[in-house]
Write a sequence for this structure.
């Protein structure tokens, strides 16, 4: 979405297997070597990240750094797509937040980007909410029938954040 492209907070990542056997996606430079995502000197434009992706075989994709300096929030809904169908609980959040949503790199989750503010990052069950100090991988594989833009959705975000204080998601 244009809203992300306006920020010079892009990185590249490579896929590697972590010690627990799960895939990791560490941020890398233009040559495919690990870097510190917290250092803004490593951030680049969207066009720069795309160019690196196209030019270096060690790079597997593009990611975005969420920072306290912007009003962007990324919401991960993990393990919510089964056999091509989105689980009801996840679909409810997609409808409530009504903003740019894409299918995650695994194909099993969703990532929603909205404009809003949160006091701190939260992670509980199948839902993760990040407003800063986090890198989120991008696929560009937008979920059909969701907006092409990133919308301001503070009220929906507040409702989501209440879930972290009340109950565990299935």
């Amino acid at each position: 979405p244009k809203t992300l492209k306006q920020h010079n907070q892009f990185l590249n990542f490579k896929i590697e297997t972590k010690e627990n056997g799960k895939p990791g996606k560490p941020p890398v430079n233009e040559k495919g070597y690990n870097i510190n995502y917290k250092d803004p000197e490593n951030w680049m434009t969207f066009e720069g990240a795309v160019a690196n992706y196209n030019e270096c075989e060690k790079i597997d994709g593009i990611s975005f750094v969420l920072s306290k300096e912007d009003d962007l929030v990324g919401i991960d809904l993990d393990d919510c797509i089964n056999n091509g169908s989105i689980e009801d609980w996840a679909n409810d959040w997609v409808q409530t937040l009504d903003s740019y949503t894409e299918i995650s790199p695994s194909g099993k989750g969703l990532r929603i980007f909205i404009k809003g503010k949160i006091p701190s990052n939260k992670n509980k069950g199948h839902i993760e909410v990040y407003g800063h100090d986090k890198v989120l991988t991008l696929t560009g594989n937008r979920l059909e029938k969701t907006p092409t833009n990133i919308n301001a959705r503070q009220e929906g975000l507040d409702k989501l954040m209440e879930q972290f204080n009340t109950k565990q998601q299935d």
